[in-house]
Amino acid sequence: MKHVVIAATPVAGHFNPMMAVAQHLAANGYRITVLTGEIYRDCVETAGLGYVPLAGAANYDMRYQDVYFPERSSVEPGLPQITYDMQHVFGDAIPEQYGALQRLVDTEGVDAVLADLLFMGILPMSMKSRAERPAIISCGIVPCMCRNAEVSPFTGHDSSPEGLLRNAEHNAQIAAALQPATDYVSDKIEACCGERLETFLFDELYERPDLFLQFTTPAFEFPMKELPHNMAFVGPMIPKHDDVEAPSWIQALDPAKPVVFVTQGTIANYDFNQLLQPALDGLADEPVQVVATAGAADASGVRIPANARLESYLSYAAILPKTAVFVTNGGYNGVQMALRAGVPIVSAGASEDKPFVSARVAWSGCGVDLRTGTPTAAMSCAYEGCDALRNTLLAIEPFINSSVIAEEELASV
């Protein structure tokens, strides 16, 4: 029986798709060990999978980011916050992650490691010869972030002669802006194995693994003629929700009124005035039913209009089948789940990878990008415009059978 280690950063948008892979592989005869933070111990063990905890700087809980990363909320969204996250949320975890992986390889025998893109403890291991390590497979739980001649990180796809020149300039700019992150991560890697990164951090994250599985379909990614040689699109990894019981009130929703589902996810939910409150205010007088979730954060100060209800936490699998429009700050996994359910999207993201997700929502024709992380209450206009998008969702039809495709790619390594 082949032994596969699933290595997941302890963040919901990273852990959930990796857990979906773990469960699928376990059901198909693989021995699975999940390496992640203590926050997910019960989830892994309840599923009957092997569990090894991360420790130290690799073991945190983003529900309490003011405790683990107290400076983060004051860092400007965009490139400054990406730099902070790459250094401190993900970079500082490298030594503990690598140490835990190496101990598993030394003591348990490991055939392959599947890690989410930002579980960067795989980088020191990837610098060893193939004979000295297991197969390393990285999983794209965010939009494709490596540089490409046809894509600007700021303006999207443009393969015209003028666009290629502009893309090259923008790609150089983002590499320069994130050079402090590249240097910081290189220092962490060097402390582990004596080697350093050779080029831009995001390029290395895609090129180093033996195989890179992008958790979406080509229909939701900008066209790129020259993809990394090791990349395969395998569709979204949707967590199993067979045991999720829908709240009774969901069945009582009025079928004559559209349901608008609103969320700020589980990380960028420390200020509900960014999206959730404007959405509730803007839709208050519309003939819709608004269902909002706080992602388990404190939402005691949120004003809830008569046509809305606010839940602390709500399974996407429970509400999306009833949803007419999904309003989100651009979390990649949530967007993938909405696409698979055939739900049009209104996206407003400014932090982490969310602007890049929002740009793809608009480009692919499956929703509206509000191009801001702090929309006004007038966003109800975006909701009204979304109804016409339903037919365009046919372009995202390949969002099925993705776990099967992923297993086929794994078997090829």
Observed structural traits:
413 residues; alpha/beta; Rossmann fold; 2 domains; 6-stranded parallel β-sheet
Report on this structure.
This protein has helices at 12-27, 41-46, 65-68, 79-91, 94-108, 122-126, 161-177, 179-193, 201-207, 248-251, 276-283, 316-319, 332-340, 354-363, 380-386, 402-411; strands at 3-7, 31-36, 50-53, 112-116, 135-140, 151-152, 156-157, 211-214, 231-233, 259-263, 289-293, 308-311, 325-328, 345-347, 367-369. The protein has two domains: 3-235 and 400-411, Rossmann fold (3-Layer(aba) Sandwich), CATH 3.40.50.2000; 248-396, 3-Layer(aba) Sandwich (Rossmann fold). α1 (12-27) crosses α16 (402-411) and α4 packs parallel to α8 (179-193). The relative contact order is 0.12. It is an alpha/beta fold and 413 residues long. Helix content is 36%, strand content 15%. It starts with a strand and ends with a helix. It contains 16 helices and 15 strands.
Q: What's the short version?
A:
With 413 residues, the chain is an alpha/beta fold. The protein has helices spanning 12-27, 41-46, 65-68, 79-91, 94-108, 122-126, 161-177, 179-193, 201-207, 248-251, 276-283, 316-319, 332-340, 354-363, 380-386, 402-411; strands spanning 3-7, 31-36, 50-53, 112-116, 135-140, 151-152, 156-157, 211-214, 231-233, 259-263, 289-293, 308-311, 325-328, 345-347, 367-369. β6 and β7 (156-157) form a beta hairpin.
